[in-house]
């Protein structure tokens, strides 16, 4: 993560070959993670890093990536937050861009739902519903409370043991381990949880990272029920397009 001039936004530089904005125009896949790309160049699992930047209030940064994926670390955003804190944050002489939602928007995909409604500050109400032993969980995150570092960042990605075994059999997730994810067996998590509702908190982490692709502070409340990257992307793309239309009309 490198400093960037005021007004440049969050940008990716891949393999010293291409550079582009963290923007929905460059989303190429949302099946298991948010993947950005330009031409033949791709970078996967950008959501945890973008979440840390957004949660820290970083609006301008150049993210230089060597390889096809952002390092998984422990499956949370904590290492990125620690690195940002260690480097320090500089204030820059331009006002913060905002994507202000002025009317409700609803997005559906089967039994998954995401509603974006007007609000004075960014807020996420997340409900998840998975088979046992995860079950149903609810988290309410209000960015105005400035609790991202403690309430969101430490929470790790998660999955079920049978899913991990199936991926390994297919030659996928070869770098995955109990060091960078919470794996649930039939009896419960195979490692201690950092919070009783860690899976729901991680889903909030993911959503914040995906909404960083707005390229502006998301002034809205997001009500998410069983949502994932694909639904987040649909919402972000619609909000970016609405903002572009509004700007063109105003001009």
Explain the layout of strands and helices.
Layout (H helix, E strand, L loop, with lengths): L9 E5 L3 E4 L5 E3 L5 E4 L2 E3 L3 H9 L5 E5 L12 H10 L10 E3 L4 E5 L2 E6 L5 E7 L6 E7 L5 H5 L5 E3 H9 L12 E4 L2 E2 L8 H14 L5 E3 L1 E5 L3 H22 L1
Helix pairs in contact: 1-2, 1-5, 5-6
CATH architecture: 2-Layer Sandwich
The CATH topology assignment is lpxc deacetylase, domain 1
Count of DSSP strands: 16
Query: What overall form do the CA principal axes indicate?
Result: globular
* Strand arrangement across the biggest beta sheet: 8-9-16-10-11
Residue share in β-strands: 25-35%
Structural class based on helices, strands and sheet pairing: alpha/beta
Distance between the termini: 34 Å
What is the name of the CATH class?
Answer: Alpha Beta
How many domains make up the 3D coordinates?
A: 1
Mean pLDDT: 93
List descriptors.
five-stranded mixed sheet, alpha/beta, lpxc deacetylase, domain 1, 6 helices, 251 residues
Describe the structure in your own words.
- By secondary structure, the chain is an alpha/beta fold.
- It has a single domain (10-250), classed as lpxc deacetylase, domain 2 (lpxc deacetylase, domain 1), CATH 3.30.1700.10.
- The chain contains six helices and 16 strands.
- The chain has helices spanning 47-55, 78-87, 148-152, 161-169, 198-211, 229-250, and strands at 10-14, 18-21, 27-29, 35-38, 41-43, 61-65, 98-100, 105-109, 112-117, 123-129, 136-142, 158-160, 182-185, 188-189, 217-219, 221-225.
- It has a five-stranded mixed beta sheet with strand order 8-9-16-10-11. A three-stranded mixed beta sheet has the order 2-1-6, with no helix packed on it.
- Strand 13 and strand 14 (188-189) form a beta hairpin.
- Helix 5 runs parallel beside helix 6.
């Amino acid at each position: 993560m490198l400093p960037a001039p005021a007004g440049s936004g969050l940008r990716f530089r891949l393999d010293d070959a291409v550079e582009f904005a963290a923007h929905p125009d460059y989303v190429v896949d949302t099946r298991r993670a948010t993947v950005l790309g330009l031409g033949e160049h791709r970078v996967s699992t950008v959501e945890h890093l973008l979440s840390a930047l957004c949660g820290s209030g970083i609006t301008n940064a150049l993210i230089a990536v060597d390889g096809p994926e952002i390092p998984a670390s422990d499956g949370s955003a904590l290492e990125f937050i620690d690195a940002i804190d260690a480097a320090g944050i500089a204030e820059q002489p331009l006002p913060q861009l905002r994507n202000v939602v002025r009317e409700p928007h609803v997005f559906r995909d089967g039994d998954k739902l995401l509603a974006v409604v007007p609000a004075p500050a960014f807020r996420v109400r997340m409900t998840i519903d998975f088979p046992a032993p995860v079950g149903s969980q609810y988290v309410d995150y209000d960015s105005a409370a400035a609790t991202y570092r403690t309430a969101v960042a430490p929470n790790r990605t998660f999955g079920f043991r049978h899913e991990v075994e199936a991926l390994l059999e297919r030659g996928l997730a070869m770098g995955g381990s109990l060091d960078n994810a919470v794996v649930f067996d039939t009896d419960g998590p195979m490692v201690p949880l950092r919070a009783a509702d860690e899976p729901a908190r991680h889903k909030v982490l993911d959503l914040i990272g995906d909404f960083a692709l707005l390229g502006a502070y998301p002034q809205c409340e997001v009500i998410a029920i069983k949502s994932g990257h694909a639904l987040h992307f649909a919402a972000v793309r619609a909000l970016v397009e609405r903002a572009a239309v509004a700007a063109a009309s105003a001009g």
